[in-house]
Amino acid sequence: MNHSKVTFHNRYGITLAADMYEPKGADGKLPAIAVCGPFGAVKEQAAGLYAQTMAKRGFLTIAFDPSFTGESGGQPRYVASPDINTEDYQAAVDFLSIQDKVDPERIGIIGICGWGGMAINAAAIDTRIKATVASTMYDMTRVNANGYFDSENSEEARHEKRRALNAQRIEDYKNGTYALAGGVSDPMPEDAPFYFKDYHAYYKTDRGYHARSLNSNGGWNVTSSLSFMNMPILKYSGEIKSAVLLIHGEKAHSCYFSKDVYRELKGDNKELMIIPDAVHTDLYDQMDIIPFDKMSEFFKENLK
Fold first, then answer.
1. Which residues pair with 33 in a beta bridge?
2. Among 48, 52, 21, which Cα is nearest to 37's?
């Protein structure tokens, strides 16, 4: 495949950086796929693996860094936004739609982890997206508002979170800098939940570490969580008319996100694929577990 570095801009004027992969020897207009995620990762990690693999299967692909992270622009750094990060996908579609080698009627997207939820939201708003894969999906709005497994789903718990985060805003303003929440803990406590240990095994080792990755280093800004608490991004998922494939590991702590959104999706072009015995991070980089054959089949069927 051919590789090139590209940039494009979103509706907020932020320049996004991407790696573009093109099948070698391809003729005519190609179907295209934009890939992003996981949440707190950079394009050189799982997104790049997905993009390269799908390019080898005949798709023109881009793996991009979301706004405020990696090689993409935006200030301040290390901010996440349910609005702007959904817009990042739409900006990727803008870019792909005007490429000489891309058929603008055959564009799909892939979202990994937290960007799976963003991808679903993008599919709900952008009718140009003809097919969406959400792999090992997180609903970042739900987990920020309700905690893991909805264990903090109460008005009182959310009030305390808001109080703490708004107090942090004052401290950040006084200091002229934004406090970081911290990436994946290192060393990882022995009594940490298994999925925290899975994150460590990816982000903090040679397996997945990257110098620009938030999760591998200092993490997101603490106050990034605020907007996610009040903006449920999957609200209109039931109105998506295009094709959607949800992929999740059977033993992933996050599997409930995909199962729940699948219940909201409508139409016979929606599918939930559960991978036996797989955990959340297996779908980041384990080539014998990620169902690339199924993904290729899905995109070929729905981008034709």
1. 61, 108
2. 48
Per-residue pLDDT reduced to its tens digit, 118-176: 999 999 999 999 999 999 999 999 999 999 999 999 999 999 999 999 999 999 999 99
In the block, which residue shows the tokens 């894969």? Answer: 133
Instruction: State if pTM tops 0.85.
Output: yes
**Residue type, position 266, single letter:** K
Distances (CA, A) of 148 to 53, 83, 188, 195, 200: 31, 22, 18, 11, 18
Other beta carbons within 10 Å of 185 = 13
CA dihedral 37, 39, 44, 49 (to 10 degrees): -40
Report the distance separating Cα 88 and Cα 110, nearest Å: 13
Q: Quickly name the fold that domain 2-139+233-302 has.
A: Rossmann fold (3.40.50)
Burial of 216 (C-beta count, 10 Å sphere; 0-12/13-18/19+): buried
Q: Where are the alpha helices (DSSP H) in the chain?
A: 46-56, 82-97, 114-125, 140-146, 155-175, 194-203, 225-229, 255-264, 282-285, 292-302
Contacts of 51 (CB under 8 A, 6+ apart): 19, 21, 33, 35, 43, 61, 62, 63
Neighbours of 231 (CB within 10 A): 17
Size (the chain), residues: 304
